[in-house]
Design a protein that fits this description.
Length: 505
């Protein structure tokens, strides 16, 4: 380009000076100059267009490069950093951290995410993930945010001032409050909560591996506390986490090796006749001895083994049926398991394998309050009823919006928690509550079981309140199948359909 311009300029100068000394040559130089200019202008225009086109292509390539780089660095669904990028940038930030700078690592795990996927499908799960990522970006706009995989996110907060536990908990509280808004999916509003584990640098670790490990233990503790909360790492968590992880491995092995046993506790009518048994799981560990259900059942829930335990108990009950008196057997299932779309199919498979009539089984639902918020769960319960199972709401009175369950969920039996039974006659609110439950059951043709009956006085108070069935140590402790029937008193072999009707107490 410069060469062409130089030639044109030289010719113009020669033309000018030549015309001064030889006017006759002026016309020739003018013609040559005009021809050269006519040739040069298109060349210049072509070159300019080529330069502009090349520049446009370079810009386009840069955009594509940035897009590819962005796709490589970001999680495709949520838009936050993916696992590899987050880990790389977080490690780099910690290595570059000045001695007087501080950091906090938050591991955020969405509560009951599997239940959302199982109940509403993966599109609903995707909506929850995107909503969670949006809330993280909103509350931690200056921090490093990434999706670590599945339903877990990571946040690295850096600060020039020390990050106190109170400040860290406040950040987490704001996030948890933001998640409580929930997210709309079709005509349903999905509730969202998260468990958060925190580790602070440098007090809980100066390297990435130690900080991540300690935040993970704190996350584990949050799940153990009941979820929807935040926990900061403490030294004593190391032994707790190691112990629980060992228990998880041993529980999984116990399920595979059939080392768990089922015990049966009688449920009686007003005459003291056995009308049903509740199947209760027991674990006698070879080294640890007897491990109480209130220890290993929460472990099973946190490690996503609770569904397998439910099927394990049902299968064992079906195998024991020929040895049991001809009465009903109550089997406990968690609310999470009820929300699984394949529950009915799997239960019927077990009954078919063992030749068991579903009308012999009463399904006791724990944490039933959490089911009432979703119409899908009510349909699942209704499908179980239509297949012959009966539904019992267990520990009634221990959750929130209890009476809403009676409107929203199909049921056959209400089991009132023992804390209400023991307070009968001593507390006005308890008396009103129990009387209201009994009246609802009477008008709808359902049964009320009083739990935790340990003395004759307990039984008399529950009987006076209108309860139809009774369960507790007064009538027998849980025993294994070999002992069922020994000194159990009279058995009332009721046909399954009769249980759904009130009988004379």
């Amino acid at each position: 380009m410069a060469l062409v311009v130089g030639l044109v300029s030289l010719l113009l100068l020669l033309d000018y000076f030549g015309s001064l000394f030889n006017p006759a040559r002026e016309a020739g130089f003018a013609i040559a100059g005009a021809a050269l200019i006519a040739l040069t202008v298109p060349l210049v225009a072509f070159f300019a267009i080529s330069v502009l086109s090349l520049r446009s292509q370079i810009i386009s390539l840069k955009k594509k490069h940035r897009l590819v780089l962005q796709q490589f660095e970001q999680d495709a669904l949520t838009g936050v950093r993916n696992r590899e990028t987050f880990l790389a940038e977080a490690q780099k930030a910690l290595r570059a951290r000045a001695p007087r700078n501080y950091a906090a690592l938050l591991l955020v795990d969405i509560d009951h995410f599997k239940q959302v996927n199982d109940t509403h499908g993966h599109p609903a799960g995707d909506e929850v993930l995107m909503f969670c990522a949006k809330q993280l970006r909103l509350h931690f706009s200056e921090a490093l945010v990434g999706r670590l995989g599945g339903d877990e996110f990571g946040v690295l907060v850096e600060h020039t001032d020390p990050i106190t536990p109170a400040y860290a908990h406040e950040l987490c509280k704001q996030l948890i409050d933001g998640l409580r808004q929930g997210v709309g999916f079709g005509s349903t509003r999905l509730s969202v909560s998260a468990s958060i584990g925190l580790a602070l640098a440098p007090s809980h670790g100066k390297t990435w591996s130690s900080l991540f490990s300690n935040a993970d233990m704190a996350l584990y503790a949050s799940k153990k506390r009941g979820r929807a909360c935040s926990t900061i790492f403490e030294e004593n968590m190391m032994s707790d986490v190691r112990n629980e992880r060992a228990l998880v491995r041993e529980l999984r092995a116990a399920i595979l090796l059939n080392h768990l046993s089922v015990a049966y506790q009688p449920i009686v009518n007003g005459k003291g006749e056995v009308v049903a048994y509740e199947a209760l799981l027991r674990w006698h560990h070879a080294l640890r001895g007897v491990i109480p259900p209130d220890v290993f059942i929460p472990v099973a829930e946190r490690s996503s083994m609770i569904a397998e335990i439910g099927y394990y108990v049902l299968r064992q009950v079906c195998r024991d049926m020929p040895k049991l008196p001809p009465v009903l057997v109550n089997v406990n299932l968690s609310a999470n398991q009820i929300a699984s779309p394949d529950l009915l199919e799997r239960m019927l498979e077990i009954l078919d394998e063992t030749g068991t009539d579903p009308q012999r089984i009463v399904i006791e639902i724990t944490e039933s309050a959490s089911l009432a918020a979703d119409e899908t769960n009510a349909r699942y319960l209704k499908a179980l009823q239509n297949s012959g199972f009966q539904i019992a709401l267990d520990d009634f009175g221990m959750g929130y919006s209890e009476f809403n369950q009676l409107r929203a969920l199909p049921f056959d039996v209400i089991k009132i928690d023992k804390s209400y039974i023991r307070a009968l006659g001593t507390d006005v609110v308890t008396d009103v509550f129990v009387n209201a439950v009994v009246e609802i059951a009477r008008r709808s043709g359902k049964l009320v079981v009083a739990e935790g009956i340990e003395t004759e006085d307990d039984k008399l108070r529950a009987l006076a309140a209108g309860c139809h069935r009774f369960q507790g140590y007064l009538f027998g402790k849980p025993v294994f199948i070999e002992e069922v029937g020994r000194d159990r008193g009279q058995v009332s072999p009721l046909a399954p359909q009769i249980l759904s009707k009130l009988d004379a107490a």
